UniProtKB/TrEMBL annotation:
It comes from Nonomuraea roseola. GO terms for molecular function: transferase activity. This is CoA transferase. InterPro entries: CoA-transferase_III, CoA-Trfase_fam_III, CoA-Trfase_III_dom_1_sf. Residues 417-450 are annotated as: Disordered. Keywords: Transferase. Pfam families: CoA_transf_3 (PF02515). The lineage of its organism: Bacteria, Bacillati, Actinomycetota, Actinomycetes, Streptosporangiales. Coiled coil: none annotated.
Length: 450
């Protein structure tokens, strides 16, 4: 089933993938949903696409894919776990059901408190009382109207009647479409060039990936491409909030720069980066980075990857919220998935889509757009059917250690094999904003390194 689904993804994206060897030792996570299938297919598709670049074979182990789907739970800095959830984030009982608030970022927390008529500094008990006196949809509406993040728990039938569900229902799981008829690599680098093919695991060596993402799905996509050899440059800003643990654990193999897009200098630097990138990955609400839309439209040869919560017409959202809105977390109390499955699956599928588009650019030329959404991934997970909830997963053999500026890191090794070799990261996570807003080869020339 898994190998067939991987091949079907390749066909849908317009690329020919090598056969993928899938090994399954019976590892499972405690969920009725077929999480093991979603993990193996999404990881396997990305691995197969990278293998297709090199013309070699691909392998994926279900156990490794499942461990990768929980990587934030295994991540340690000097033996200590990273911070994942803020105090006010969580599920709250309402007058007629349940609602989830996402308060990991300060402005989202403040928006939720304003929506509930509470003062800054209110504690979880005050939020609990405020939610209990309102309906779930009222809390969702009030919070989102104030630019916060919340989702009422819906039944699957209620979700199917939601306009957002109808929008994503007819779209491909991974949409790969041409947007301009000509163009190759903006900087003239051939896909599969350089070291690729000689060391068997650097399919994306020389490929430039601009990372405009946060939290999990987008960063997982770009981290995966970094493991295949891509030069991934993450763009942030000093005042842009991040989840402390995740911003480190998802940054292996990347570089990080800060740009102030309110300044002309910052906008020029971003335009230079987009104009010379092979891939730009965005994971923001539709329209939030309009300047990038304008730049992408006129950059020939660019692969633009857009990850949203609810599709191109939807609003803000995160994995835990989409689980509630789509009914995936149904129950009383809600029963979330045993991992951020929608985030991780969408992340690996986005990496697959990006590489598929690069393969098509190599074969056909042109510029390409790749679109995915957490809500569409949730629909796919539901369509995979149900299995027996079994808690059987060992991370033995899947963890590595690396020194960094933050301390000694324990992390999950990249899953999959390409030509018999496991991909890997050649550098630890950088400090945010530590690098210049230039590509690695330009940075090396500027410093005389390499």
């Amino acid at each position: 089933m898994t190998a067939k689904l991987i091949q079907e993804l390749g066909t849908s994206a317009g690329v020919t993938l090598p056969e993928v060897r899938v090994t399954d030792d019976g590892s499972r996570l405690p969920s009725a949903y077929r999480v093991e299938v979603a993990a193996a297919v999404s990881v396997g598709a990305a691995t197969a696409a990278a293998a297709a670049v090199l013309g070699t074979d691909a392998e994926v182990a279900v156990r490794e894919a499942l461990v990768a789907f929980r990587d934030e739970r295994y991540f340690r800095i000097d033996g200590e776990p990273g911070e994942l959830w803020a105090e006010l984030s969580g599920d709250y009982r309402t007058a007629d059901g349940w609602v989830r608030l996402h308060c990991n970022f300060g402005h989202h927390r403040d928006a939720a408190l304003r929506a509930l008529g509470l003062s800054r500094g209110s504690d979880r008990e005050a939020v609990r009382r405020a939610c209990a006196s309102r309906t779930a949809l009222e809390v969702e509406r009030r919070v989102t109207e104030r630019n916060g993040c919340a989702a009422a728990l819906r039944t699957p039938q209620e979700w199917r009647e939601d306009p957002r569900a109808r929008t994503v229902a007819g779209t491909p799981l991974v949409e790969v479409a041409r947007v301009l008829g000509d163009g190759g690599s903006p900087h003239g680098w051939p896909l599969g060039g350089g070291r690729a093919g000689r060391d068997g695991g650097r399919a994306l060596d020389g490929v430039r990936v601009l990372d405009l993402t946060r939290v999990i799905a987008g960063p997982v996509a770009t981290r995966t491409m970094a493991a295949y050899g891509a030069d991934v440059l993450k763009v942030g800003a000093p005042d842009l909030p991040e989840v402390p643990g995740l911003v480190i654990s998802t940054a292996f193999g990347k570089r990080s720069c800060h740009l102030d897009l309110r300044s002309a200098e910052g906008r020029r630097a971003l335009a230079d980066l987009v104009g010379s990138a092979d891939v730009v990955v965005r994971a923001v609400r539709p329209g939030a980075l309009g300047i990038v839309d304008e730049l992408a439209e006129r950059t020939r040869g660019l692969v633009s990857v857009d990850i949203t919560a609810y599709g191109p017409t939807g609003g803000r959202g995160f994995d835990s919220l989409v689980q509630m809105a789509t009914g995936i977390a149904g129950g009383d109390p809600p029963r979330p998935l045993p991992a951020q499955v929608l985030d991780h699956a969408t992340g690996y599928l986005a990496a697959f889509g990006a590489i598929a588009a690069l393969l098509r650019r190599r074969a056909e030329g042109g510029s390409w757009r790749v679109r995915l959404s957490l809500a569409r991934t949730a629909q796919w997970l539901d369509e995979l059917g149900r299995g027996e909830p079994v808690d059987r997963l060992e991370a033995t053999g899947s963890l590595g250690e690396m020194d960094s500026d933050f301390g000694r890191l324990t992390y999950v090794l990249p899953p999959g094999r390409i030509g018999g070799r496991r991909p890997g990261w050649t550098s630890p996570p950088p400090r945010q904003g530590a690098d210049l807003p230039v590509w690695r080869d330009n940075a090396q020339r500027a410093t005389g390194a390499g």
